[in-house]
Amino acid sequence: MALTLRDLAAERALGLRVLAGEAALDRPIGWVHPTELLDPRAFLEGGELLLTTGLALDERTSPGYARGLVDAGAAGLGFGIGLSHERVPDALVGAAAEIGLPVLEVPRRTPFIAITRAVSRAVAADEYAALVRTERGQQELTRTAVGKSGVGGVVRRLARLVDGWVLLFDASGSVVEAAPSSARGHAGELRAELDRLRAGTRLTALGEYEVALQTLDTRTRGVLAVGTDGPLDTAGQHIVNAAVSLLSLALEQNRAQSAALRDLRTGLVGLLAAGQGDLALGVLATVWGGAPEPPWSVLAFAGQATARRALHDTLDADTVAENVFFAHSGSSVLVFGAEDRRDQVLAVAARIGGLHAGLVERVSLVDFGTAVDRAEHAASTARERRVPLVRHAEHVGAELLELVEPGVAQAFAARMLAPLRQHDETGRGELVASLRCWLEHHGQWDGAAARLGVHRHTLRNRMRKVEELTGRSLDSPGVRAELWLALQVC
Q1: Does residue 352 sit in the same domain as residue 415?
Q2: What is the CA radius of gyration of the chain?
Q3: pLDDT exceeds 90 at position 339
């Protein structure tokens, strides 16, 4: 901490006495400058304690002299008595008291060099303390950056080192990291400043805080915001600069790693689709701990590139990704995994907006390549129709029905489903809904029963009733197809 006028006046060995400006004694002393010039303003930078014996001063010139020192930003005046003046001129003391200039009376026995040495020792000690603090801060940040806590750890460590709060923004202005977490509340107030900052550093005030905004040296422009109760001192500035360098390096490494993982994901989907399942699953097990167990629900998402990237990045950070695998595939994002995760993935896409999904269900490893093509085709149809989701099975049925005259299709469907609807209208069952669900699950009893909320034996009984009423066997693929098409019409 810099030596103040109050600290200097408290050193008994110097014998200084405060004559004026006591309220401003907490000003720091930048340096000491002895001079007998009547107007020394051209030689001052601000913050100096000026020492004089008043050789050129008298009662007439003293008021103007005091005002000149205030204009130059001097910290205060040390007036040596016993040489040019036996006492400090009253006009000088009065003027100084009026304008708030601290005046210290220096006794004849105290040489000016003693005051200079006292200030010099304090400045040297302050600079050494700042150097030590800077080195320790840089070491702490470096250890944190190379540790497990990464970017978030650097942000939290920096906030403690500067005794303030820190926000790390990405290129879009979204908060990547915040320390403490309550600092996120300042993000909205800084948006306009972020828009004005193109490169370098910008200082701004935010309520009681002074905020330093500094761009990171990365390909994707990020910004570090550091808020403190007052201006950062020299050590604080060096520590922030070190954090900026470490964060820039870490984010660039993360970006490169993320890009490599994205490419690897895409390559693995290509291998799976090409029938190289063993190789792809081996890599999946090594890098991601394994793939979801088939059969899978396969989702393809079409949309603008920004929306697809947002979906990929959100899944990468969301816990839903623990049980699905996702990758960029051509002009879509492909997601496959267990059926119980399908709705969660669709919910993530709905939050992002601008995405259209195609769905293929009950996909085995052998059928994966075909399922990808079907899902992407359904997604393309969903985008053309401007709907959020198209199921491939329904899409295929709809395409076939387009080849049939509507009246004929409706008559066919009514005839096929009439006995089932008559049965349902008597309140003796839910055959139509159960048949639809069973067909959607490709005849899988457990999955369909779970979706309906009934026991699988109950579902088996209902399907036997369907066979009895229609006079057709559900073991026949042709019968299943006819019933499915009929359900699409009605």
Answers
A1: no
A2: 39
A3: no
Q: How far is CA 472 from the centre of its chain?
A: 59
As a whole-number percent, the residues of the chain with pLDDT over 90 amount to: 30
Residue 177's nearest CA partner among 41, 78, 317, 72 is 317
Angle 456-470/406-425 helices, nearest 10 degrees? 120
> Is 347 a member of any domain?
yes
Burial class (CB in 10 A: 0-12, 13-18, 19+), 478: exposed
pLDDT confidence of residue 172 = 72
**DSSP output for 208-235:** TEEEEEEE-SSSS--EEEEEESS---HH
Q: Is 273 contained in some domain?
A: no
Q: Please state the pTM of the whole predicted model.
A: 0.46
How many structural domains compose the chain?
4
Name, in order, each residue with C-beta under 8 angstroms of 294's C-beta and a sequence gap of 6 or more: 363, 364, 365
Cβ-contact 382, 395 below 8 angstroms:
no
Element (H, E) at 355: strand 355-363
Output the CA–CA distances (angstroms, integers) from residue 89 to 25, 62, 92, 473, 481, in the order listed.
20, 7, 5, 119, 111
148 and 230 share one domain: yes
Which residue range forms the structural domain that includes residue 103?
5-110
Element spanning 343, H or E: helix 342-352
**What CATH code is carried by the domain that includes residue 78?**
3.40.1390.20
Q: Is residue 147 situated within a structural domain?
A: yes
What single-letter amino acid sits at 149?
S
H/E segment holding residue 169:
strand 165-169
Averaged pLDDT for residues 273-294: 84
Q: In the structure encoding, which two tokens stand for residue 321, read together? A: 């990704």
234/163: higher pLDDT: 163
Report the C-alpha gap between 55 and 302 in whole angstroms.
86
Chain centroid to CA 139: how far? Answer: 25
In terms of DSSP H, where are the helices of 89-215? 90-99, 112-146, 150-161, 187-196
